[in-house]
Amino acid sequence: MLRRHLLLLSFGVPLLPVRPGAQPGVAAQAPVRVLSAGAMEPGLDAAVARFHADGGAPVQITYATAPQLRERLAGGEAPDLLIAPVGLVNELATAGRLAGERATLGRVGVGVAVRQDAPVPEIADLAGFRRAIEEAERVLFNRASTGLYLERLFERLGMTAMVTPKAVRFATGAEVMRHLLESNGRAIALAPVTEILLVPAARFVGPLPAEIQNFTAYAAALLPNGPPGAAALFAYLSGPEARGTFAAAGIEAVP
Fold first, then answer.
1. What is the rounded CA–CA span in Å between residue 19 and residue 110?
2. 102 forms bridges with which residues in the sheet?
3. pLDDT of 160-186, one tens digit each?
4. Taking the domains of the chain in order of start, what are their residue ranges?
5. CA 45, CA 37: separation in Å to the nearest integer?
6. What is the Cα–Cα distance from 112 to 206, expressed in whole angstroms?
7. How far is CA 166 from CA 106, 133, 136, 161, in A?
8. Pick from 75, 49, 50: which is nearest to 64 by CA?
9. pLDDT for residue 11 is more than 60
10. What beta strand segments (E) does the chain contain?
11. Collapsing DSSP states into helix, strand and coil, what is residue 183?
């Protein structure tokens, strides 16, 4: 069953019983407000659930595309913890909007998916990827960071004229995957690997070939005046236990 990934949906981790040995009064802590890029959702959801189960403060997560993160922050939104592309985090640091701490959590590449009943294309190299796009009846991708990269890629490969008539664009990777499952014929979806892995009803063909792969690195940063739980969550997400959770969700360590 396709998991709903609603844009800008607030995700609140429910209050859980405090484990033996946990600090008293944890359930009464102020919730940590997190604003995060949607590509981090599967790993972040799992890591935050473990953080809270281990006695951490409750957490409320709002997911958005990378362009919308920029818009919300420019409009004055100030979460306690931000998880965004490294470039945006660096811009905020330069502007003096951070509380001083930031850490790179991992990177997410672009992947290819088809329906379970569709032929599986061979995309191990550039020639195979090009052939898969040529043979597809529809090419589905988003209008966010991944889609902007793909636009440049198709132009660089001289494929724009061929792709444009069958390209179908959506706001988010989640919408791309939903429409893939609802499609018929030879449709192919291009989306962040993490958003493909969220949808077991689809077939993950694999990442883009190495020579055309594009990774987006994501960093966590504390903003001023957050509750005490924000620093604890930041430390947990930047630590080794969370890295294992991120890796299981398709979020790679940055070399």
1. 39
2. 221
3. 999 999 999 999 999 999 999 999 999
4. 10-108+217-248, 110-212
5. 12
6. 6
7. 33, 10, 8, 10
8. 75
9. no
10. 10-12, 32-37, 59-64, 81-85, 102-108, 110-115, 138-142, 167-170, 187-192, 202-207, 216-222
11. coil
Question: Which has the higher per-residue pLDDT, 173 or 22?
Answer: 173
Least confident range of 9-18, 53-62, 221-230: 9-18
Q: Which fold has domain 110-212?
A: D-Maltodextrin-Binding Protein; domain 2 (3.40.190)
Model confidence pLDDT, tens digit, residues 190-225: 999 999 999 999 999 999 999 999 999 999 999 999
Query: Which stretches of 166-234 are assigned E, i.e. beta strand?
Result: 167-170, 187-192, 202-207, 216-222
Pick the CATH number of 10-108+217-248 from 3.40.190.10, 3.90.1010.10, 2.60.40.10, 3.30.420.10: 3.40.190.10
